Amino acid sequence: MTPAARAAAAIEILDDIRAGQPAEARLIRWARASRYAGSGDRAAVRDLVFDTLRRLRSRAALGGGEDGRSLILGACRDEGADPALIFSGEGHAPPPLTPAEQAAGRPPTAAEATDLPDWIADRLQTDLGAEFLPVAAAMRERAPVWLRVNQARASREDARAGLARDGIDAEPDPRCDTALRVTAGARRLQGSGAFRDGLIELQDLSPQIACASIAAGPGTRVLDYCAGGGGKALALAARGATVTAWDAAPARMADLPVRAARAGADIELVRNGRPRGDFDVVLTDVPCSGSGTWRRTPDAKWRLTADDLQAVLAVQAQILDEAVTLVRPGGTLVYMTCSLFRAENDAQIASFLDRHPRFSRHSARTLTPLDASDGFFAEYLIC
Ligand SMILES: C[S@@+](CC[C@H](N)C(=O)[O-])C[C@H]1O[C@@H](n2cnc3c(N)ncnc32)[C@H](O)[C@@H]1O
Questions:
Q1: What is the pTM assigned to this prediction?
Q2: Which residue out of 76, 211, 226, 338 is catalytically annotated?
Q3: Is 383 a catalytic residue?
Q4: Which residue of 99, 104, 160, 378 has the lowest C-beta tally within 10 Å?
């Protein structure tokens, strides 16, 4: 496909996403229906769509509208590309720009340049203070690809050498002993020997740092109370902890046995009934707004409403209230979100401590793209 044909595909996909279709599902549907598109084309269309969703407001201003054509026109102007080369009308290229389209568009205002909805920008301005603008700017960029090395199977250097044999370059990161940042060949990861043999897992740097801060080595009994696909459970099992996994929606743990087998981890899944017992560590990796991960799921920031945020705050409080009964005296309750909102993080913990005074703060980590990768929060509470 030519760059112009890829842009034409992105226009169609963006129109459907703006009409309410989830971005990921729409891209998969396009790829399945477009047999002529090679892997390079699929990657380029995906990048163009996701880059544009990350910068939706500023590109809409530059292109003079929120429809797919205006957004791609805004993308051309944002990147300093000549729109006439894309909107050529030749072959599978988009039809030429009309005079009205050529005349439309202006530089984004300061608010539009944050590429956040106003109500979210206002909240984050209050919550992040002086870091707001640098964090907002960072959230307009693509996120790096991070790997967690499974220490139970390989050293970081051995995993790196294995990846290199499959044409994947990755750099160790000093902020976490398990972290590798992929610098080339990311699209080969799933087919690589290192992945197949359980030497590595895809996991962002921030949750790796947060998991590494949990005192959970051999002999520590950990309950992952919101296990989902098991990213945190696997990270803790790799550090030698004995991990039990539970999720209110057991179907969300469907991938965990396969991932655990690949990693050589022995994780007990509680599928029927609720977990019981006194655990040394109970991890609550709660559902959240996901505001820290909007570089990876940029359509989500345009969908989130204030009501959604209120609803998720209530679920988080309820999960914390349920989890307290499972922590042994002297044990640790760990609360994690991938959110930048204070209401989901520090304020949620402050009201938890009002309700459960037998717990006390031990430590906390707040991570933003300025100091790690995804926005992330972890609070470690002692019972
Ligand atoms: C952020 S995801 C967990 C991601 C997972 N820990 C990982 O690392 O891959 C939150 C999970 O909490 C689960 N959940 C929602 N409500 C819950 C509740 N009341 N109790 C326990 N888990 C709940 C969801 O089903 C979802 O799988």
A1: 0.95
A2: 338
A3: no
A4: 99
What number is the average pLDDT over the span 28-49?
95
Residues 238-255, mean pLDDT to the nearest whole number? 97
Closest-CA residue, ligand 1 atom 23, reads: 248
What's the 227 CA to ligand 1 centre distance in angstroms?
A: 6
| Helix or strand holding residue 138 (H, E) | helix 132-138
Q: Which two tokens stand for residue 122?
A: 């206002």
- Torsions phi, psi for 350 (to 5 deg): -60, -45
Using the mean position of ligand 1's atoms as its centre, give its distance from the Cα of residue 252 in Å: 8
Are 239 and 261 spatial neighbours (Cβ–Cβ below 8 Å)?
Answer: no
Place of tokens 């990270």: 235
Ligand 1 atom nearest to 247, measured from its CA: 22
* Three-state secondary structure of 187-215: HHHHHCHHHHCCCEEECCHHHHHHHHCCC
Q: How many CB atoms lie within 10 A of CB 98?
A: 11
State the distance from the centre of ligand 1 to the C-alpha of 23, rounded, in angstroms.
Answer: 22
Mean pLDDT across the chain: 97
Give strand ranges (E) for the chain: 145-149, 169-172, 179-184, 200-202, 221-224, 242-245, 267-269, 279-285, 327-337, 360-367, 376-382
Report yes or no on 136 lying in a domain: no
Q: Order of strands, edge to edge, in the sheet holding 200-202?
A: 169-172, 179-184, 145-149, 200-202
Q: Whose CA is nearest to atom 26 of ligand 1?
A: 228
Tell me, yes or no, whether 292 lies in a domain.
Answer: yes
- Is the domain of 291 the same as that of 350? yes
Q: Is residue 139, in this structure, part of any structural domain at all? A: no
Q: Are residues 190 and 217 in the same domain?
A: no
Q: Would the annotation count 285 as a binding residue?
A: yes
Q: Lowest mean pLDDT of 112-116, 221-225, 274-278, name the range.
A: 274-278
Range of 346's domain? Answer: 213-382
- Hunting for tokens 């610098």 — which residue is that? 183
Q: What average pLDDT does the segment 184-203 reach?
A: 96
Domain count for the chain, please give it.
3
Is residue 330 a part of any domain in this protein? yes
Q: Which is the closest atom of ligand 1 to the Cα of 232?
A: 8
Element holding 231 (H helix, E strand): helix 231-238
Tell me: do 283 and 376 sit in the same domain.
yes
